[in-house]
Amino acid sequence: MTLASNSTVFNMDLGPLNPVWAELILGLVLFALTFLILAKGILPKIRRTLDEREDAIDGGTERADDLRSEATQIREQYEAELAEARHEAARIRSKAVEEGSVAIAAARAEGNAERESIIAAGSAKIAEERAAAEREHNADVDAWAHALAARIVGEPVGADRG
């Protein structure tokens, strides 16, 4: 088949663009063969690889989302535990301050009671010693007064008269 015979088939003259039937059929057969090879052999492998990649990406995204949500949950749990620990520490501090205040008050009361007992014992001892000293002093003063009066009067006075 030549270009001249093609013009009789198509009833128009396209010049050099008139197709040659043998080349056209050969092109269609080769196109169909190439299409079948690609469609049945290569494209399924490419599609499978693309699907695997898409699954890996989607799965990776899902795993990342799961990990992110798990990390968020762990962080919230950690923050809750930290807040609980801070609350517990504050409670322990306030309890320790309260116990310290009670201990200080008890020690102060005990110290005051001990001070009062020491003061009372000291006051009683001072009072006894003062009374003993007054008795002793009065006896001495009385004896000196009689001796002095006897010296002034020239004769024994009071109990020495006898």
What is the fold's blueprint, element by element?
Layout: H1 3-10, H2 21-153
Mean pLDDT: 86
Give the total of beta strands.
Answer: 0
**Structural class of the helix and strand makeup?**
mainly alpha
Q: What percentage of residues falls in helices of 4 or more residues?
A: over 70%
Q: What's the tally of helices?
A: 2
Global outline: rod-shaped
- Main sheet characteristics: none
Q: Rg, please?
A: 64 Å
Uncertain regions spanning at least 5 consecutive residues = none
Query: In what range is the share of β-strand residues?
Result: under 5%
Assembly state: single chain
Describe the structure.
The chain has 162 residues and is mostly helical. The protein is built from two helices and no strands.
Give structural attributes.
2 helices; mainly alpha; 0% strand; 162 residues; single chain; 87% helix
Outline:
The protein has 162 residues and is an all-alpha fold.
